[in-house]
Structure formats: structure tokens, C-alpha cells
Amino acid sequence: MPKISISNQAGKVVSFKLNNEKPQTVLALLQAEDIRWMHACGGKGRCTTCRFNIVEGAENLKPQTAEEQKFIEAGKIKPTQRMACQAVPVGSVTVEVPEKCKLPGVNYSY
Ligand code: FES
Q: Total structural domains in the chain?
């Protein structure tokens, strides 16, 4: 089963089933496992607070959405980052929460 690993949450791992009929975003998959993740606009692709650094498995994410491309072109997110509310995994990926997107009360460690 593919996995989302969060490198700086002590390697927390979420396993998920691929569902081609109803693809799930990284944010939806994390929330389904009660993992706290910043998402200020509610997952509408408007704020970038849900962004993550790709550590491994970039090829296992569906292509960037128009929203992500817009924010990359504007310099709001790096080409090595994705927005959790937009990125849809099709295989295993390892992510890291950027410093500015860390939530209070969550233990970030390696
Ligand atoms: S939650 Fe706002 S862009 Fe993803």
C-alpha cells in the first residue's frame, strides 16, 4: 500500500489505498488520519499554508494544478514544494513541513 511519510513529524506515516475513481489529495488523506496540518483557506487552493517540501517521491504526485502553477510563478511556493490540498499522490511520497507552515502544539522532529 502506498504511504505518505512526514519526515519532520518523527517519520509519521499514513498508508492509503489508491482510488482512481475518487482521487484524494494529500491534505484529505492526512486529515482522514487526524493529522493536524495547516490549511488556512480550507483546502481551496488560495493560501499556500498547506504547502510541503518534497523529500522523496515527486514522481508519485499527479502534475501540479493551475493553482499551484500560479503560486510558483508568483514566487509564493518553490518548484520543490506542493500544496497539500492540490497534490494527489499515486504512490509513496515523503514530505516535510516548512518552518512557516508549522502549527503550534505539534511536535516537529526527525
Ligand atoms: S489550504 Fe489553502 S492553499 Fe491549500
A: 1
